[in-house]
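fyi for ur records
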Amino acid sequence: MIKFIVLSTQRSGSAFLATSLSSHPRIHCHREIFLRKNRNPIAYRAFRTASLRRRLAHLFVTKWLVYSYLADLYKVTTGVDALGFKFMYDQAKQLPEVVEWIREHNVKVIHLIRANVLKTFSSLLAAQARKVYHSTKPVEPIKVRLQPEELIAVLTRRMRLIETYRGVFADNPYLEVTYESFVAHRDDEARRILRFLDIEPFVPLTTDLVKINPDSLQDLIENYEGVAQVLKGTAFEQFLD
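which gave:
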């Protein structure tokens, strides 16, 4: 059984990649099983609240409980050869025990990066305003307003976070994938990912999820001109349309 994670941050295409991977008959990728609000019976939340003993363990012996949960997760092979889950940067910070387990078990890491951090941030604001993060059908268009005076600091933090997590699993088998490349060259990137997971044969990866934001930032950002003026001449100018 190949163990892997999709390491990423919100609004970087991780659901798109996870569902695409699960479309392969030999792969299953769980969604955010460490999301605090995930009420799916297979999620960590359900596991840690299933009994008083586990509730106490979560508080006092978290590492033991996390390791027990992941051991149970991988006992159920569901007839696949590669089993993984989405793991977000904020979850890695909240549960360092999961990071330890990934390192100790030499889990394969697919690090999904959305290179355009301006789009990542704008997409996050749109999702929060719309209260829709993923959809299998088109949604109503929306525009968001950014705070230009705070934007450079926000984007700088996002770039630094990507760099930080490039090094967190430096000793694990590691593959970096950009959202932009996966969208533009899906079959080529799928082949690269499948080789990394030692999965054959090649099967085109598909998903039911649809893109819910426009490609053009001018169609998403209400005060685009003000944002463009602030970013002009900076390292982030390249992310403008």
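The CA atoms of residues 94 and 238 lie 32 Å apart. thats all i got for now
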